[in-house]
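User: I've been trying to design a sequence by hand for this structure and keep getting stuck. Would you show me what you'd pick, starting by listing the structure so we're on the same page?

Assistant: Good idea, let's start from the same input. This is the structure you sent:
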């Protein structure tokens, strides 16, 4: 391929871009990189790009309007709420995500948060360090066998979470109106509507995309519908859960605990009320991370560009574009 092509990397948190360069430079791509934070910065970097790789930078309608000959936008990760999908579709630009790079890592993290919350491990560790030694600490702690794990969403990560939870002897239910009945049956999972999911889950693990339908789904009303002994785990998107409503629910004892890897505003403010609640654990949006998944993310994202520019169809197009 003789023509020089440009891939614009709007922003990234990786040590380097060796994975992407090894795959795309042989095709004639040159790299333009930035750490863009505003649409104006993104537009300036990407206006003449043939392909875009983006992590968190806003690729909104004004950016897409400024693109001269871009053929693909790839998001490093699963969620695509930083990209205007409709504007890209109008321009005929496929938006592609990478949903399969960290399924095991996120599932492992979700289960780890569940175990740490239900077993109250951080609190017990803190007690021991403070000189308190109790063989039945932080009562009540309940066993997992026979309890119900529910997942909001039933995609790849939710299924991996349920598989792990079933190994602990937990029953499983899931809410996902877009998944067929036979998929539930194959995995021994009971289909639930939203109200049943909230009412029956002893542990509720969130695995929803962020969109107009799901934003704020975990509201005051949702927490009021849950068991007072229930726990919530969120490793999907922060905007699904109303953090203020969660703090109120925890303070009032409407649910027993929560563990969050994502919040609508990140990083979390140091004086955030959730950080003052023992029954809430917060990790730093790191569920996706392992050294293995880091390499897969970069490689899989670059492969989607390579596919398009070598005559193949990208595997994970998320907007309605004919390629």
């Amino acid at each position: 391929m003789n023509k020089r092509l440009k891939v614009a990397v709007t922003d990234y948190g990786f040590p380097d871009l060796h994975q992407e360069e090894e795959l795309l430079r042989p095709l004639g791509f040159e790299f333009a990189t930035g750490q863009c934070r505003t649409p104006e910065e993104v537009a300036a970097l990407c206006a003449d790009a043939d392909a875009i790789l983006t992590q968190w930078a806003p690729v909104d309608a004004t950016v897409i309007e400024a693109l001269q000959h871009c053929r693909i936008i790839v998001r490093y990760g699963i969620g695509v709420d930083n990209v205007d999908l409709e504007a890209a579709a109008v321009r005929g630009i496929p938006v592609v995500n990478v949903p399969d790079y960290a399924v095991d890592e996120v599932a492992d993290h979700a289960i780890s948060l569940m175990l740490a919350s239900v077993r109250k491990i951080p609190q017990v560790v803190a007690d021991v360090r403070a000189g308190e030694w109790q063989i039945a600490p932080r009562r009540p702690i309940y066993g997992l066998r026979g309890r119900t794990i529910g997942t909001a969403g039933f995609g790849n990560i939710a299924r991996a979470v349920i598989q792990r939870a079933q190994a602990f002897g937990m029953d499983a239910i899931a809410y996902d109106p877009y998944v067929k009945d036979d998929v539930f049956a194959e995995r021994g999972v009971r289909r639930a509507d939203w109200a049943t999911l909230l009412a029956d889950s002893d542990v509720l693990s969130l695995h929803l995309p962020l969109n107009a339908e799901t934003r704020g789904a975990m509201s005051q009303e949702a927490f009021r519908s849950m068991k007072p002994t229930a726990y919530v785990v969120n490793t999907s998107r922060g905007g699904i859960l109303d953090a203020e409503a969660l703090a109120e629910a925890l303070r009032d004892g409407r649910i027993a605990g929560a563990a969050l890897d994502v919040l609508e505003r990140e990083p979390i403010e140091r004086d955030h009320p959730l950080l003052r609640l023992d029954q809430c654990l917060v990790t730093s949006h790191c569920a996706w991370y392992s050294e293995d998944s880091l390499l897969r993310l970069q490689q899989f994202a670059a492969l989607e560009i390579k596919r398009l520019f070598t005559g193949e169809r990208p595997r994970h197009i998320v907007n309605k574009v004919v390629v």
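That's my pick for every position. To get oriented when you compare it with your attempt: The mean pLDDT is 97. Residues 291-309 form the longest helix (19 residues).
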